[in-house]
Amino acid sequence: MRVLAAIYEKELDHEFDLVDMGAGEDKNKYFPSHIPFGQIPSFEDEDLNHFESRAFNTYIAYEYADKGTQLIYKDSKKMAMASVWMDVESQQFDQTASKLVWELLAKPVLLDMSTDTADVEENEAKLAKILDVYESRLAQSKYLGGECFTLADLHHLPTIHYLMGTQSKKLFDSRPHVNAWIADISARPAWLKVLDWQFAKQTVRN
């Protein structure tokens, strides 16, 4: 979803090559050389093959800097600040938030497993502290990386989207600047297109 959001922000042409994992297509001789850790999806652009969404988005932002939304700064100091928050997302926010998605959504809804309430309580406490830092930052600037929407904001969208449908939504709602930021980035046309695509894909499967 992160890469598709970046593609839509950049207004790039793209196509999907569906992999039948049930038939073992992800284990054939092609995929191990391109996705050494067995991660799906993977991404290709001409001769570039990649399996890490954040890294591929960075490539998209630089390679197609003249198209669509400017997801990076040309100014090195501004880009340094945006990069800090890109790291915060991957190393702080997502490390904790993804555990909540697992416990509150994946386990009970997708896998018919019981939620570990102690784990939820622990990670909600951790996420609350992280969001306190976000609240302070967003009181100073419209977006995490500065006054413009960048990859630092975009990379949060999938995990936030899932958590907003769980009890952890209260952690975002209780912080006015964080809440306003989420409302802003979640209403971007590119992200709404991602959600439309996801809904259409689920409808076809059902």
Automatic annotation (TrEMBL):
UniProt subcellular location: Cytoplasm, Cytosol
Ranges for domain GST N-terminal come to 1-68
**EC number(s)?**
2.5.1.18
Enumerate the spans annotated as GST C-terminal domain. 75-206
One Gene Ontology term of the biological-process aspect is: toxin catabolic process
The entry's keywords: Cytoplasm, Detoxification, Transferase
Query: Which coarse location class applies to the principal site listed for this UniProt protein?
Result: cytoplasm
Top EC class for this record: transferase
Catalytic activity reads: RX + glutathione = an S-substituted glutathione + a halide anion + H(+)
What GO MF annotations does this protein's record show?
A: glutathione binding; glutathione transferase activity
Q: Which GO terms describe its cellular component?
A: cytosol
Keyword Transferase attributed: yes
InterPro entries the UniProt entry points to: Glutathione-S-Trfase_C-like, Glutathione-S-Trfase_C_sf, Glutathione_S-Trfase, Glutathione_S-Trfase_N, GST_C, GST_Phi_C, Thioredoxin-like_sf
Task: Give the family, as the similarity comment puts it.
Answer: Belongs to the GST superfamily. Phi family.
**Protein's UniProt name:** glutathione transferase
Q: Which organism is it from?
A: Fagus sylvatica (Beechnut)
